[in-house]
Amino acid sequence: MNTILRKSVLGIAGLAFTGGVFAGPVAAHAADTTASVKPVSVSVQGDKLIPHGVQGEQSRIDLNDEQTKNVKAIIAATKKAGMDERAAVVSIATALQESKLENLGHLGDRNDHDSQGLFQQRPSSGWGTVEQITDPEYSTTAFLKGLKQVDGWQDMPLTKAAQTVQVSAYPDHYAQWEQQAADLVAEHWNS
Description:
Blueprint: H1 3-23, H2 26-35, H3 65-80, H4 85-99, H5 130-133, H6 136-148, H7 158-166, H8 178-188
């Protein structure tokens, strides 16, 4: 998908989401999420990992070897793209929400349209071929390319940055993974 079309789609999705937050019942939920912001710092990386505190209740899963390998692949692709720890946190939190860091193929009837891979990207939406989006380096690079196009992503809450790229039906769900993503980046960034 060309850059202008992608920016247009992302802009329209952002406007639709913003309009819904201010005009609909989601506003009450958003207020609850903001009210439960808990400041958190990660001593190893300072405020680069969590510049706004963690929003809402946090989720955490135990990772197996494959999931840890995917964390390392996301970090390597982030470094290769010349991006910092914050980009890796946003990427890992997004992959935690979308796939629990499992490189998912087509799930048959349980599939969300044609979503696949760590980020549940869709070939029909221009993310790449099935082979590409199920490659952790490619899918991370594609996600980061989208993130780079979000003006001010570094300074916005993680869930808003992730949602602007992903255009999910559940925009607030990314926030629950920020602490684990930050911990994983702090653990693996220099390894």
